[in-house]
Design brief:
mainly alpha; 39% helix; 6 strands; single chain; 6% strand; two-stranded antiparallel sheet; two-stranded antiparallel ribbon; 327 residues
């Protein structure tokens, strides 16, 4: 929290990359050198869970929760509309809106719209969600993939990469969650995970190692994006949706492949049995969801904390969501 208080912000949003020693923006690309509202939303999702954990604690803990609340209130969500009924991913003090990335669903960014609606200081109206994220209902596109039915339209593909089922739902509890466009977010994400698994079992490109015990990477389950690379975060972070199937993957990775894929901080980020490629490297944005989703599976802790925040509950109600935990 101390670091985030002094780090660069752009209309309240932090950049995609931050230099760890100085807190200054580290460009993610030439024009991506300002605020990143999506990455900010993922960060705030965690901060609000931490707020709820400390809010009723001792004096020091309550003071920390208050500092988190100040950070939360400083994000200018509505400014990132760029005057439109949609949220934009990026803004740069040097290049303005030139990246021109309006965020439509469905992808990993659902929680950004919920937090924007939930903001007590810079909120968006429901119309921004309806017209921007849901594109006036065009987000609904019932279709079948690998024998499973999906209700939502996934940007550019029939079913996208598995992290689309993870990032927004680290704190946002999908169980019993529904709105005008999806009657069961948990069921949708479960089938979405099983589609990725079914693709690897079918294995149309005949990669070594693919199967029920080893699925999938940060790519969509389609042949032209399939590179034969497995990222453990994909199946392991789906443990909340597919507990038995994800445990099969965990046992396989920890067993036969143990020496090649396991290190001091858990499973390495990615590997390819086809190419005999086992880099001993980690990527934090992949490691994080594994830990969070395992904890949600065993105790529901992060779900309970995030969903208990009164601003989050207000945002969900404002956008027409229903959930068993809404008070």
């Amino acid at each position: 929290v101390s670091f985030l208080e002094r780090a660069d912000r752009f209309h309240g949003a932090w950049p995609h990359w931050i230099e760890g020693r100085t807190g200054r923006v580290k460009p993610f690309g030439k024009k991506d050198n300002g605020g990143d509202l999506v990455e900010t939303a993922f960060l705030v999702q965690g901060l609000l869970a931490a707020h709820q954990y400390f809010a009723q604690g001792n004096e020091r803990e309550q003071a920390l929760a208050q500092r988190i609340d100040t950070l939360w209130r400083g994000v200018e969500w509505s400014w990132y509309r760029n005057g439109q009924n949609v949220l934009y991913w990026h803004w740069s003090p040097e290049y303005g809106w030139e990246m021109n990335f309006a965020v439509h669903g469905f992808n990993e960014c659902l929680v950004m719209y919920i937090l924007a609606a939930a903001s007590p200081t810079y909120p968006i109206d429901r119309e921004v969600y309806t017209e921007g994220w849901a594109e006036n209902g065009a987000i609904v596109d019932e279709h079948e993939v690998e024998g499973y039915r999906l209700r939502l339209r996934y940007q550019g593909v029939e079913a996208g990469p598995l992290f689309w089922a993870h990032y927004s739902f680290l704190g946002l509890d999908p169980r019993g969650l529904r709105d005008d466009y999806c009657e069961d977010y948990f069921g949708e994400m479960r089938d979405y995970s099983l589609i990725n698994r079914a693709y690897c079992i079918r294995n149309p490109r005949h990669y070594k190692g693919y199967g029920k015990d080893c699925w999938y990477a940060a790519h969509a389950p389609v042949e032209h994006e399939d590179r034969g690379v497995i990222a453990p975060t994909a199946a392991l972070s789906s443990i909340v949706y597919t507990p038995e199937e994800s445990m099969d993957v965990m046992r396989y990775l920890y067993g036969p492949l143990h020496e090649k894929v396991w290190g001091p901080y858990g499973f390495y980020d990615a590997f390819s049995q086809t190419d005999d490629w086992y880099p001993q490297k980690y990527l934090a944005i992949d490691q994080g969801p594994i830990a969070v989703m395992i904890e949600n599976h065993r105790s529901e802790l992060l779900w309970r904390l995030f969903m208990s925040h009164p601003d989050v509950q207000n945002g969900l109600r404002k956008l027409g969501f229903d959930s068993p935990v809404l008070q």
